[in-house]
Design a protein that fits this description.
The protein contains six helices and five strands. The chain is of the alpha/beta class. Bound molecules: magnesium ion (MG). Magnesium ion binds at residues 10-12, 58, 60-61.
Length: 126
């Protein structure tokens, strides 16, 4: 079975280390695969070639912000669950993201157990 492909988009390079450490077992067992991008513009090239199952995207990024990215992905591939990951977890941010079609919102610093539970749910329903 192909690994469940997750794309994490965040201009904070530390995210890669955090996710790799937390999903160490799942990655080494080949259950999941994670692609890291520092900004969303290459995402649609990856989407054209790979079976991306779930996306986690930062909101504050220099070239394209997470809200514009959400609009774009909703236009092109609305069936992929997109979770927003942001240090700004205010009600306005969360409501705006959900209105734009986000599946969920994780506030930094993360509770990775909550993220893992959500991903497991998505993997089951996929
Ligand atoms: Mg950022």
């Amino acid at each position: 079975m192909n690994p469940y492909h997750i794309v994490v988009i965040d201009d904070e390079k530390a995210m890669e280390m955090l996710f790799n450490a937390f999903f160490d077992k799942e990655l080494s067992r080949g259950e999941i695969k994670i692609t890291y991008l520092e900004e969303p513009s290459n995402f649609f090239d990856i989407l054209a070639e790979e079976d991306v199952r779930l996306v986690m995207s930062d909101i504050n990024m220099p070239i394209m912000n997470g809200y514009d990215f959400l609009d774009k992905i909703q236009e092109q591939k609305p069936d992929i669950p997109v979770y927003m990951i942001s240090a700004y977890g205010g009600k306005d941010h969360i409501e705006r993201a959900m209105q734009k079609g986000a599946t969920g919102f994780f506030v930094k610093p993360f509770d990775f157990d909550v993220i893992k539970t959500q991903i497991r749910e998505q993997m089951k329903s996929a």
